[in-house]
Amino acid sequence: MKQKMSEDQKFIFDSIFTQVRSGFFSLEDIQDNIIEEVEDNGFEDEISEDWVQEKIDEVYQELKAESTSWEYPTMTERLVAAFDELSESHKVIALHYPGYTMDEGEYEVVEIERALIDNNQKSEGYCFYNGQDLERAVRGEGLHIAFQKIDNESDVVSKEVAHKIVSVLQKHNLDVEWNGKASSRIFLPHFKWEQVYDEDARDLLNYNDVIDIILENK
Predict the structure, then answer these.
(1) Contact 189, 175 (CB under 8 A)
(2) Rounded Cα gap, residues 19 and 191, in angstroms
(3) DSSP 114-161
(4) Burial (Cβ within 10 Å: 0-12, 13-18, ≥19) of residue 51
(5) How many helices (H) and strands (E) does the chain have?
(6) What is the DSSP code (8-state) at residue 25?
(7) Residue 112 region, left (φ>0) first, then alpha (ψ -120 to 50), else beta?
(8) Fewer CB in 10 Å around end: N or C, the chain?
(9) What are 145's strand-pairing partners?
(10) pTM for the whole thing?
(11) Radius of gyration of the chain (CA)
């Protein structure tokens, strides 16, 4: 019988669960991230490094077992392909997890736009999901995607950006919900986050790739 976790352990376990199942980080990086999180919260007396490693391994093994029954391409792979197409064919800055909050995501988008402008190029919009969205997606609660065009105040332009994004997502066989309002985010209601970390795979958190894709197809 498994021992019930304390509130502090549950807090840390939730972070382990998200980081492992996101597939963005190596197990070594997750170990370092979690130990730092334990120390920052003053949980060292209750949560040991051995406990952290045990839980990381536990979540990873469960994920690996699940992955043997996934259908390929997975929903996450289809999302990546859709984001690549948005950047390549529509000059949309499409980012995976550019920060935990909306503000952090928007900051990253502006930095990329500055890099594009330095190369005599501008985007035609942007979209991203943040860390909070990722947490919900990992829990099987669907995925929200923010969208807009930089320095835009026109609802008409915002909706044009959204329609492009919705169309490309649907093209890649993803179920999409959007109420047509410029102020409402796009939602993938049946989205299942399916990704296992692969050290040989492309780093989706390297946003220089997005800059390169847009510049190469201007």
Answers:
(1) yes
(2) 18
(3) HHHHHTT---S-EEEE-HHHHHHHHTTS-EEEEEE-TT---HHHHHHH
(4) middle
(5) 8, 4
(6) S
(7) alpha
(8) N
(9) 186
(10) 0.94
(11) 19
CA distance 215 to 218: 5
pLDDT tens for residues 116-164? 999 999 999 999 999 999 999 999 999 999 999 999 999 999 999 999 9
CA distance 193 to 185: 18
Pairing mode of beta strands 126-129, 93-96 = parallel
pLDDT in tens, 4-61: 899 999 999 999 999 999 999 999 999 999 999 999 999 999 999 999 999 999 999 9
Instruction: Give dist(CA 154, CA 209) in Å, integer.
Output: 29
Give the span between the Cα atoms of 162 and 126, in whole angstroms.
9
Q: Is the peptide bond before 189 cis (omega within 30 degrees of 0)?
A: no
